[in-house]
Amino acid sequence: MVMTKNRRFFCISICLLTLTVFVDGFTVTTYAQENIRAGVASTVITPKQPMWMSGYAARTKPSEGKIHNLRAKALAMEDCNGTRFVIVTVDLLGIPRPTRDWLEKRANKRYKLPPASLLLNASHTHSGPVLEEAKDSIYGNTFYGLSPQQLQENRRYVKALQRKLLRLIGKAIENLAPSRLSYTHARAGFAMNRRLPTERGYQNHPYPDGPVDHDVPVLRVDTPDGKLQAVVFGYACHNTTLGFYEFCGDYAGFAQTYLEKAHPGVTAMFIAGCGADQNPYPRRTLDLAKQHGRSLANGVESALLSKASPVRGPIQSAIETVTLDFAEPPSREQLTQQAKSTNKYERWHAEVLLKELEQNGKICSTYPYLVQVVQFGGDLTMIALAGEVVVDYSLRFKAELPGSNVWVAGYSNDVFGYLPSLRVLKEGGYEGGGAMLYTDLPGPFAPSVEKRVVDKVHSLVERVRTPKSN
Fold this sequence. Notes:
With 470 residues, this protein is of the alpha+beta class. Helices cover 30% and strands 27% of the residues. The chain is globular.
């Protein structure tokens, strides 16, 4: 990497702050906490015109205004070796894989940012615009209500969003300055498992005895003299308090707003955790979304009051795909019968798979699943998983990965549908495979799904935690 005079001075001065002295026969090593530079940036991504909204199949019309602006935010970090890592968060249902591919390619070319150094995370608000790029998406069919003009507006929005996110990354990198990073955490209790076991299978309903992850991980960014600049926080819960026709970040949007109002000049960023089988309860009103947002913001404020652990370099990251197998797909005869269903979604799904069978001679049997890991020295391990990830994964990784703080995010880099654990897959229900009905994927996944993902995570963690040899 080519360094300016100021960059060289920063690296030399910061790295030399690692000092070893001998006191009464003991070796004492003092590490500088300011060995990572950081920069933040934010931009509005609210559509300027009414658009169809993501998340609920029952919607029958486009948006009607907004409660507050949707935003995209970026945190760029750089260690004293010049290694960068950028986290981008968006108040959207998800990041389509084509958008991830487009952005990583151009960020690499324009900012020399490797693909492994870019993490995209969506809050999964169900009160944002549709982001569909596939011709065979569920929104591209006339039965869903979108006109050709609306589909065209959607694609124009996606292209504009991509350009905004690219500029946002550049702005965050441009704002890099000496900083002090630290990790802390607290709790928030409004998330509840939503997979209620009944005689008719697992139903979407409050289940207080189901597994949850109430942890609120917090990464704080301070100036070298201790002034708070940014706070990145997470929670494992569906962002689904609301179901109306106005753009809104839901509880995660309100939590960010409350924190930024309480700390003027600070950028607050939300990272969605493994909340695919968790809902905010109670729900369905704007006041409840605000209450949950306040609860989460209070959790972050509590974390900021507690003693934080320093987060230092070097920064090492990796991203790879792991091949996930689908279960045996339905036969042509089964699909032909399903295409006669009175349920329009069952009918659409069968038609899409029959079309694939006609064009390719077979139905896809695998999915290229993205797994990303970033390690900050020996202090913090962040795991970013694609899709809507059930809570079992975050609980498992935090139990299995000793040695540093572990932060597990879902809804990262490619939100294609649900990622069940083996337990959820065997139980069935919406998260176990039923939700595949609303995608162009055959589903459900094969029983190997959890082992494949877990093995890949452990492999990448071992790689980034292993010191690089000179």
